[in-house]
Write a structure and sequence with these properties.
82% helix, 3 helices, mainly alpha
Length: 98
């Protein structure tokens, strides 16, 4: 059973790193939105393509409250929740299987 525990621990660690990286991509997108970025810049295009599938449904659900786009904050809170609830649960389960 220790093999399954190690695979589960590795999977949880990889998911944790992916969520962490995506959170920083969302932060970069939010920071870039404060200035007037060049829409033809490849970095700006990459950030938009990667984050828009997550931020767009949150924007539709929230709407524009007080003229501020709160979707990056909600997305980051959801990522932190997933890191605490799902990833930590998988890590604890993997430790118990070892």
């Amino acid at each position: 059973m220790f093999v399954f525990g190690n695979v589960l621990l590795a999977t949880a660690t990889i998911v944790d790193y992916i969520l962490w990286l995506y959170m920083w991509i969302i932060i970069a997108r939010a920071l870039i939105s404060w200035v007037n970025p060049d829409p033809w810049n490849p970095i700006v295009q990459f950030l938009e393509r990667v984050t828009e599938p997550v931020l767009s449904p949150i924007r539709r659900w929230l709407g524009w409250r007080m003229g501020i786009d709160l979707s990056p904050i909600i997305a980051i809170l959801a990522i932190v929740f997933l890191q605490i609830a799902v990833v930590q649960t998988l890590k604890d389960l993997a430790v118990r299987l070892n």
